[in-house]
Amino acid sequence: MTIRKSLEQLRADGLVESRQGFGWMVASQPVVQTLDTLVSIERQLARTGRTHERRILDFRFIDSPPPVKPVLGNRVLEVRRVSLVDGEPFGRVTVWCREDLGAGLSRDEVAQSSFYELLSERAAEATQTIGAEIVSETDARLLQVPPGSAVLVVRRTTIGESGQAMLMAEHSFPGHLTEFVAQLPRTRVDDSDNEAGLRLVDEAG
Fold first, then answer.
1. 107-141, pLDDT tens digit by residue?
2. CA separation for the pair 124, 61 (Å, rounded)
């Protein structure tokens, strides 16, 4: 009872927090990511003074997985990594890069810089989806979260200035470590048919 009261007081003081399935933990400020500009998470973190590190797990050229092949072609560079913020696991990231664009890249380069900084073609636009999913066993270990907990899964397809797709990426973030903020232009506030907004997931599809 004494321990419980002490934890409740620490929570009231903003020093610890509790979450279903996680237990008690030191309170942390979520990383805020914007949705209105096409920038890397590293640039957004730099503005807040927080440190970011890429830990490369896989760097290899492979036959494209089924969802990637129609978009990027038969062969891609696949880079899988864990992103660390202030030394702690923050997200699992898998990037698939079109083979001709990734041919000159090295493992060390993708560990130090984002694809947007490294590729010869500049990004022009992207389509991004964000949904809640149950963490996989592999990601639970990498992100140090309990099995069965929820994660935000972000999938992005980036189009280059040539009009061709250049990158596809999948990010898995523990739900308590990040939040996404979108700036809505006035012209879209009352547009109920806006295709870029909220939509229901078709489970049958």
1. 999 999 989 889 999 999 888 888 889 999 999 99
2. 24
Its sign, for the CA torsion 87, 90, 94, 99, is: negative
Separation CA 59–CA 126 (nearest Å): 23
Q: Are 94 and 78 in contact (CB under 8 A)?
A: yes
Contact 150, 134 (CB under 8 A): yes
Q: DSSP string covering the chain, please?
A: -HHHHHHHHHHHTTSEEEETTTEEEE--PPEEEESSS---HHHHHHTTT--EEEEEEEEEEEEPPTTTHHHH-SEEEEEEEEEEETTEEEEEEEEEEEHHHHTT--HHHHHHS-HHHH-SSPEEEEEEEEEEEEPPHHHHHHHT--TT-EEEEEEEEEEETTSSEEEEEEEEEETTSEEEE-PPPGGGTT-TT-TTS-----TT-
The residue among 75 and 202 whose pLDDT is bigger is 75
Picking from 28-32, 44-48, 88-92, 183-187, which range would have the lowest pLDDT averaged per residue? Answer: 28-32
- pLDDT of res. 27: 46
Q: What domains are defined for the chain?
A: 30-183 (3.40.1410.10)
